[in-house]
Request: fold
Amino acid sequence: MDLAILIPLAPFIMVLGIIWLVNQRKLEEKRISATAEASSEKAAQYASRVQQLEDRVQVLERIVTDKGYDVATQIEALRDQRQVEDKGSGVPLDIKNSERA
Reply:
């Protein structure tokens, strides 16, 4: 190829190169903007979730540190209640061996 042919085309090639670079820059700015929006949205969701968890921890701390709250007694009461429910309540009916008066 003869370089003499490319010399008159140089301004056109430069213009095309500049247009391509400008378009690439705009696309990159759009990508960055979209990423920033998605990141800020996720950050807001995480902040909301963290706040919910902190609120729950505060409630649990309040329950545990309450002076009138006796965890062991309540656990035992639940165990006792479960034993009663497992065994059933009342007198079992045995129709075959009915009582005679």
User: Anything to note?
Assistant: Helices lie at 3-65, 71-87. The chain has one domain: 8-85.
